[in-house]
């Protein structure tokens, strides 16, 4: 009696509150709601006949609606077999999927759950293909990787510094002769690398300059004439001292 009163509707609890025999309550409920099978059955049969797989956008919605109708038919005493479920799905495919429907029919599924599982997998794969196509349509080039682009520019900058010297030319004018020490790492073997010829310099002076390893412009070691970045006032000071033969540099 407690179990029946716990599960019936709240409105029915007050109606059968005076009934103390559980068998009497069960019979009263059976007499009252037994006619619902006759009411539900025509509607369930109509829903079953109107059910079509092509009317649903996704497979899961069709599957839920199908089992809801099947449960109502079974409650009314109708028998629904696995073959009936599969045949209902095959016959309600869209006309554009006729070839796909024939392939599923020839596969030979023995249970409805196997058929619906294959449809769910195929639907998921189609969604992934559409997402990939929308993210990058056919014929469009892929985007460059950020790491590859940044490393390319970093490498280009290193090569530029090797050939031109580190730092900007404007700031190098304030460094004075200390700038020459920054060039030593680029030309470790000054005797082999001093091959640039100073315009107006004789071949004898060039040989002497190569032996000493000094720059013809500023007189410092460790860089070429064309790679010299020494400030102009230091260069002028060095060139004036060359004209004074009686003084040491």
Automatic annotation (TrEMBL):
Molecular function terms, GO-annotated: nucleic acid binding; zinc ion binding
Organism of provenance: Cephalotus follicularis
Biased composition, class Basic residues, residue ranges: 153-164
Region described as Disordered: 139-216
Biased composition (Polar residues): 171-202
PANTHER family listed in its UniProt record: ZINC FINGER, CCHC-TYPE-RELATED
Gene3D superfamilies assigned to the protein according to its UniProt record, in alphabetical order: Zinc finger, CCHC-type (4.10.60.10)
Protein name as it appears in the record: UBN2 domain-containing protein
